[in-house]
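User: New here, please read:
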Amino acid sequence: MAQINIKVDDQLKDDVSAIFNEMGLDITTGIKIYLKRVQRDRRIPFDLTSNQFDAQKLAQRHQNGDQEVVANLNELFNALANQGTSTGIGGTILKKR
């Protein structure tokens, strides 16, 4: 049987170990599950994305009714409204008083 040694931040190891323990797993078993999933699906089992803002994807998610996006946009617009301004297409619009 092969052995893999990796170095990770102490806090990451502790956090992940605690999460796996809540599931009744040790960290070795959790990592084996991940590796078997990669082997089976021949891909990483989640999407890798950058933190780059993508307005087109956000707009599409909003049009599709993604409730997380709708809630976040509502929170943004409410925060802007409470500052005395509102943002619309093309820039800032002064709030009517």
The first helix runs from residue 10 to 22. The beta strands are 85-88, 91-94. The first strand starts at residue 85 and ends at 88.
